[in-house]
Amino acid sequence: MMPAWRRIAASPWLFAGPAVAAATVFVWLPMGATLVLSFFDWSLLRQEATWRGLNHYRGTLANPDFHLALGNTGLYLAALVPLQVGVPLALAFALVRVRGGFLARLYRTVLFAPSVLSFPVAAVVWLWLFNPTVGYLNTLAGTLGVAPQRWLSDPDLALWSVVAVAFWKSFGLNLLIFLAALANVPNDVTEAARIDGAGPWRQAFDIELPLISPALFFAAVTTFIVVLDEIVGAVDVLTEGGPYRTSSNLLYFLYERGFRHFQFGEAAAVAVVIAAIVAGITWAQFRFGERHVHYD
Which of 8, 41, 63, 70 has its CA 20 to 30 A from that of 115? Predict the structure, then answer.
């Protein structure tokens, strides 16, 4: 029989073991394999792998299509991260003040409903809305005296059309996070502020916002990471990176390298570059943003 001290020493590993094993198999080993693959030239069309060293990285960083995808990714992030954090935050502050349980549940259901859809389904719906001849958006624009637009084939509009779809599809999750955080704000604190004469704006900005800052920080970090992945589904169905690659982004560029051109070594190098960029920005968020979070 195992001694008591050994059972005590082994018990943490019994709890952590499954999670560590799953992370090793599904996260760390694939990451290591991707890093190794980035130094080789290999595709499904041939069995042998050829050593390329840093050539894939040099080729990727010198590729004009990569530069365009990188710039587009910056535009996506600059638009979507503030939208998917700021708009749900404002809606959450408004919804917690809705009187009447039925109305509150109705608003939350309607606003969260798009998040339940898969991106292909949501994008197909928007393909109909964006249709340049029979789409609802151009029909509505015509009633307002505005000329019809080529939403998905105009280089000036395609990226922002994808932004609109990605925002509509994904902001509901952050809305639920903020609603849950506001529901946990102690009533005695807000009641004391109200008695002291604090109006709704003062109460929201000086009391409730600092108290939900952990949820706000969490949403900002995860939105930055997840939004890159979310855009790919919309781009793939709506524009396929066009026109003239004006709506492409880094992950779609990776997808094309790997699953359209079957250049898995080059795709692995792109994945490593993306991981380095995400890790660097996430570190900066923790380094400079977490100091403003009040965990107590």
Answer: 70
